[in-house]
Amino acid sequence: MILDWLRGRERGSARTAKERLQFVLVHDRAGVSASTLEALKDELIEAISRHVEIDREGVSVSLTKDRRRQRLVADIPLAERRTAKH
Amino acid sequence: MGAKVVTVTSGKGGVGKTTTTANIAAALAAAGHRVVCIDADIGLRNLDLVMGLENRIVYDLVDVVEGRCKLRQAMIKDKRVPNLYLIPAAQTRDKTAISPEDMIEVTAQLRRDNDWILIDSPAGIEGGFRNALAPADIVLIVTNPEVSAVRDADRIIGLVEAEEKDPPKLILNRVKPDMVRRGEMLKAEDVLEVLAIELIGVVPEDEQVLTASNRGTPLALDGRSRAGRAFQAIARRLMGEQVPLEEFAAEDGFLRRLSRKVRTGGQPA
Ligand SMILES: Nc1ncnc2c1ncn2[C@@H]1O[C@H](COP(=O)(O)OP(=O)(O)O)[C@@H](O)[C@H]1O
Ligand SMILES: [Mg+2]
User: Fold this and answer.
1) How many angstroms does the Cα of residue B265 sit away from the middle of ligand 1?
2) In Å, what is the CA distance from B91 to each residue of B6, B47, B61, B62?
3) φ/ψ of residue A65, rounded to 5
4) Considering only CA atoms, which residue is closest to atom 14 of ligand 1?
5) In chain B, fewer beta carbons within 10 Å around the N or the C end?
6) SS3 of residue B106 by DSSP
7) What is the mean pLDDT of chain B?
């Protein structure tokens, strides 16, 4: 209980500050805004759909970092193959 | 082998660059090193006031660059510590009065007969910052535990890396240990994790900083205040000593771990 209480205190505004910073810096460093990322995602969906059937709802495009190295990560789930042989 | 040029910069204004420059310079000189400070904040001269040398200014950095005086004539000798000099900024000109090449030239002349050249950078990422950065061997980035200051520091780190300088080192200034304890202020570990650079010192919020600048006597000349001791520790780390993080900062386990990293010069995990 005391541990819970201590942990609760840890969740002050500093934690929010850190999370917000991590998010904004990933975009700052890449020079890519959140809205650019959305536009990129829409275009990726269009381009890939022309060749492969994908689960449009499940697509995610995000920036990540390991130390100071930026990465653009796209996760594109394929559509369920309803016509697959049984 | 000549002086090391240390540029103190930040991105955001008002985070403590001038305070840091004056105090590290005083601490290095008090340790017997030969130190010259250059105020590169053209048009917003301030280092002279913080060092208490404002009444002695005859010539400034722009006078040197434009050939109106010899370098030596623009060097104001400190009243208290031997081997400490200030080259003040011009107050009535702007940053376009000097170029990065001018800064490289001026520091080149100073390198032979000194141990340290400290450059107080203006805020921002434009001309004045570029001037201050050009001759740097070591870049110290001052920030506060506050989102906008940390974001600006990150921008500066990127610009320093783009110039192919060594990775800058971080000074986290104005830390309030009680707020950190309550989880209401970013701690050193958080800021280092976000910025991914090495720490060279943590300076607490301290009223003595203001009284010292009121008087024009850098705090680091005596070790009676917490901030003064923190600046002294940074100077010693610059001189290559292994100095653990100050007690006030090493209040919990991870900061103790961190302080070990600082001593061994390692990267924080
Ligand atoms: N550790 C500190 N504790 C309390 N006040 C500080 C501290 N560091 C800086 N200050 C105050 O913050 C203000 C801005 O500092 P200054 O060194 O002029 O910043 P900069 O050169 O980055 O603009 C000054 O009033 C200074 O006295
Ligand atoms: Mg300043």
Assistant:
1) 27
2) 23, 12, 10, 10
3) -140, 145
4) B14
5) N
6) helix
7) 92
Give helix B207-215 / helix B226-238 axis angle, nearest 10°. 80
Q: What is the pLDDT of residue A67?
A: 65
CA distances from B131 to B21, B42, B120 (A): 16, 10, 11
Instruction: Give tens-digit pLDDT for B117-154.
Output: 999 999 999 999 999 999 999 999 999 999 999 999 99
User: Does residue A25 contact residue B154 with C-beta atoms inside 8 Å?
Assistant: yes
Q: What is the ipTM of this complex?
A: 0.82
Inform me whether the C-beta atom of residue B253 falls under 8 Å from chain A C-beta atoms: no
Give the phi and the psi of residue A24 in degrees, each rounded to 5: -70, -35
Cα–Cα distance, B22 to B181 (Å, whole number): 29
Domains defined for chain B, CATH in brackets: 4-259 (3.40.50.300)
Q: How big is the A-B interface in CB pairs under 8 Å?
A: 44
> What is d(CA B47, CA B39) in angstroms, rounded to the nearest whole number?
6
Q: Where are the alpha helices (DSSP H) in B10-77?
A: 17-30, 47-51, 61-65
Strand, coil or helix: what is B9?
Answer: strand
Token pair listed for A67: 């130390």
Is the pLDDT reported for residue B269 higher than 50?
no
Q: How many domains does chain A have?
A: 1
> In tens digits, what is the pLDDT along chain A, a chain of 86 residues?
555 555 555 579 999 999 999 989 988 888 888 888 889 999 999 999 999 999 999 999 988 876 667 788 999 999 887 665 55
DSSP letter at A26? H
Q: How far is A28 from chain B (nearest CA, A)?
A: 8
Q: For chain A, first and last CA: distance in Å? A: 54
Q: Which domain holds residue A74?
A: 32-80
| Rounded Cα–Cα distance for residues B177 and B235 (Å) | 22
Listed residue (B233, B229, B200, B199) closest to B212, CA to CA: B229
For the entire predicted model, the pTM comes to: 0.86
